[in-house]
Design goal:
Helices cover about 25% and strands about 30% of the residues.
Length: about 130
């Protein structure tokens, strides 16, 4: 199966710590899925160290994002072309605003998905959401 990045689908060839930004973007946006083990061009390469990747994702969810988005995120494994792909399904967050803990509620910490990219939220966008809570 060929995959194409969209507003609700992010493709990652392998796990990197940047993924926390992507997760926050989907939580602050309309939700979506991140596929790990798929190149940007849609080619499935698979994930070798599945247990390690799932553990790292779990760590991100429980320690690096504020407020805790545990109920909004589910990870699953998918077999495609004989390879394992890690799928992270992220619902639109129920909280008013999510951020990466290490940056707090700043433009750097609060991202949102726009089209196929993650963008830093403006101070104005953050303020509006913060006041909505």
């Amino acid at each position: 199966m060929k995959y194409v990045e969209s507003e609700t689908l992010e493709l990652k060839e392998k796990y990197t710590d940047v993924i926390v930004k992507e997760i926050v973007s989907f939580l602050n946006g309309n939700g979506g899925s991140i596929l790990i083990g798929v190149k940007d061009n849609g080619t499935v390469v698979g994930v070798d160290n599945v247990d390690e990747v799932l553990r790292k994702i779990s760590d991100i969810i429980t320690t690096q994002i504020e407020p805790n988005p545990q109920d909004e995120i589910k990870s699953e494994l998918k077999f495609d072309e004989g390879k394992i792909v890690v799928v992270i399904n992220i619902n639109k967050g129920r909280s008013y605003l999510y951020c990466q803990k290490k940056y707090g509620y700043s433009s750097t910490g609060c991202n949102i998905r726009i089209g196929t990219t993650c963008r830093e939220m403006t101070i104005e966008q953050i303020k509006i959401r913060y006041e909505q809570k």
